[in-house]
Write a structure and sequence with these properties.
Elements (H helix, E strand, L loop, with lengths): L8 E2 H24 L10 H26 L12 H15 L2 H18 L7 E2 L1 H18 L8 H11 L7 H18 L5 H6 L4 H18 L17 H9 L10 H11 L16 E8 L2 H14 E9 L2 E8 L2 H11 L1 E9 L19 E9 L2 H9 L3 E4 L8 H11 L1 E7 L6 H13 L3 E4 L5 H9 L7 H13 L2 E7 L4 E3 L2 E3 L4 E5 L2 E6 L2 H13 L5 E7 L6 H12 L4 E8 L5 E5 L1
Parallel strand pairs: 7-8, 7-9, 9-10, 16-17
Antiparallel strand pairs: 1-2, 3-5, 3-6, 4-5, 11-14, 11-18, 12-13, 14-15, 16-18
Length: 590
């Protein structure tokens, strides 16, 4: 269905563009994954771009939702953020959700555009000239973010898009179309710039994703999707199975364009963001990604440190928050460098492994046998992530204020690599996100059962009775029953004055929430925690689970256990360290 065209680039256009770009990347994800040969033939560029864009789109939706609920009815600005607010949300969402090499570069492209679009905080919109400036700044800032730019990559495609709009006179639709055409032409030329692409018979995967994003920009301003270039034509393009085989090196022996030769060539030319002239050698063993809170000077030193440790270095961001991506042999040293620079978090380390394209010789990957059943769980802190992992679950870490998107849950289901998956969202606010992820996983042939756990302590109870050896339905029923029989509570600090079920609280008050509602308001963390436990046990219970956050008083568990021994005989207690989980204390009563 054609979109209603946007005349100017305003907040609604940002929202529309993000939604259309996410849809476009979703449609093209498998195709882009299939042609991913460079810098590492790990077949995830399309997925990483999709996850990055999903995070950007979710951040924009959150800004709109905030205005729709917070603006006075009938006011001129009701339900409508400014262009600057929407653009900054898009950039921030992409930054914190950036995945992989190309996703990190896409995040910097969106950030570069946002810096221009948000330059005038009060402006309601910008025109074609503003879009031209935004595209130019995006391409330049993305190129500056990489340690050693290489032509024939997404950087080349972005620069071509910016060059193409210089002479484009007219409205945003005219400028967007010129950018799309320039990017498409540059993309078709990428095999002539990188031998790895030429031998595999494909265009650059990251550049292909950027063209899809620019096509969505055209549709935003014209209401119609532009004509697809030849690389996207099913008649002109090889089928996905053939492309996968050629990239992985499993095609027929007579295919001189693909297979192991293509992989070896990718290694000889060097990774996408680093000119590496080491023909015939294998690349680094690990991909390390993390968000980093640090100042500009510390990040400048970090760049030099990481550049000496590995390759494929991309550092994007600013204003104290950065996304760091690098390929290294010593993953620990890369993380330690981040610790020296500031506070790294959301750390992701991927081992390319002996079967990956980073290994010299480019041996084809052998498909891993699927497990029969797995549990995928969202957890709020590093401590619980370790606990869940030890129990055999595949975890998705939810940092405070940064809930995972559905794409991250789908990726975790894929990572679990099982025929049957039990999904534990462990948060009432994630029920819709988890349902969307479950539906997507089912479409990919995985049998998924979603247990609507509303707290990590309910997830612990469910995991405790999980038995992979019994029938799937029986296992799900048992886990659901255990979760449902567990009441949950949390102790937090009030951020502002507000009305609650227990009365008016002030900023700084200690709140005890039982099953999601404020039940106790106090001024002491330990006293509030004991009152909450007393109230919960008034309805009965045999087991109390305490999950301590990093900021909880060190002796709080001792005080609660002493109270239980004095007033609630026969009640057992188990204590876990949750780490930086966003709450002082999680409590479960079974």
């Amino acid at each position: 269905m054609p979109q209603v065209p946007q005349t100017f680039f305003d907040a609604l256009a940002v929202r529309t563009w993000c939604g259309l770009a996410l849809t476009a990347l979703g449609r093209a994800r498998e195709e882009i994954d299939a042609i991913n040969v460079y810098p590492v033939a790990d077949g995830d560029t399309g997925t990483n771009l999709y996850l990055t864009m999903e995070s950007a789109a979710a951040a924009v939706e959150a800004v709109f939702a905030g205005h729709e609920t917070g603006a006075a009815p009938g006011s001129p600005a009701a339900g409508q953020p400014t262009l600057a607010e929407a653009a900054r949300a898009m950039a921030h969402g992409a930054l914190i959700g950036a995945r992989g090499n190309s996703g990190t570069i896409l995040a910097q492209l969106l950030r570069g555009m946002a810096q221009v679009l948000a330059d005038d905080r009060e402006a309601a919109h910008t025109d074609g000239q503003g879009l031209r400036l935004a595209l130019r700044h995006a391409a330049d800032s993305a190129r500056e973010a990489v340690a050693h730019p290489v032509e024939g990559t997404v950087l080349t495609v972005a620069s071509a898009a910016a060059d193409a709009v210089v002479a484009a006179e007219g409205d945003c639709g005219t400028v967007a179309r010129a950018a799309y055409e320039g990017a498409g032409t540059a993309l078709l030329a990428t095999p002539g710039q990188l031998a790895a692409l030429a031998r595999a018979g494909v265009v650059d995967a990251g550049g292909r994703g950027l063209v899809a994003v620019l096509a969505a920009l055209v549709e935003t301003f014209t209401g119609e999707a532009p004509r697809a270039h030849a690389y996207a034509d099913p008649v002109a393009s090889p089928d996905l199975a053939t492309t996968h085989a050629r990239v992985a090196g499993t095609g027929p022996a007579g295919e001189g364009a693909g297979g192991a030769d293509a992989v070896r060539d990718a290694e000889g030319v060097g990774p996408e963001v680093c000119a590496d002239d080491r023909p015939g050698t294998g690349g680094p063993a690990f991909e390390v990604i993390y968000l980093l809170e640090a100042d500009d000077e510390a990040v400048a030193r970090l760049r030099g440190r990481l550049d000496g440790l590995g390759d494929s270095l991309v550092v994007v961001g600013g204003d104290g928050l950065w996304n760091v991506h690098v390929h290294v042999d010593d993953a620990g040293a890369a993380v330690e460098a981040g610790v020296e620079a500031g506070r790294p978090y959301r750390i992701r380390i991927t081992h390319f492994g002996a079967e990956d394209a980073h290994v010299a010789g480019g041996a084809a990957r052998q498909p891993r046998e699927r497990a029969q059943r797995a549990v995928v769980a969202v957890v709020p802190g590093e401590g619980l992530a370790g606990l869940y992992t030890e129990a055999g679950a595949t975890t998705v870490l939810a940092r405070p204020g940064e809930p995972p998107a559905s794409g991250e849950l789908v990726e975790a289901v894929r990572r679990a690599h099982a025929r049957e998956v039990v999904l534990l969202p462990n948060d009432a606010d994630l029920r819709h996100t988890a349902a969307a992820a479950a539906e997507q996983a089912r479409a990919e042939g995985v049998r998924v059962a979603l247990i609507p756990t509303r707290s990590a302590v309910q997830g612990i109870a469910a995991l405790a009775v999980h038995e992979p050896g019994r029938r799937f339905d029986e296992d799900v029923v048992s886990m659901t029953s255990a979760a449902g029989a567990t009441r949950y509570a949390e102790v937090v600090i009030a951020e502002r004055q507000s009305w609650t079920m227990a009365g008016i609280c002030q900023a700084g008050d200690v709140l005890g929430l039982i099953d999601g509602d404020v039940a106790v308001i106090g001024d002491d963390v330990t006293a509030t925690a004991t009152r909450v436990v007393d109230r919960m046990l008034a309805a009965g219970g045999e087991m109390v689970t305490l999950v301590l956050g990093d900021e909880a008083p060190t002796d709080i568990a001792d005080h609660v256990e002493t109270r239980l021994r004095e007033s609630h005989l026969g009640v057992d207690t188990v204590v876990y360290r949750g780490g930086h989980q966003g709450t002082l204390l999680l409590i479960g009563v079974e």
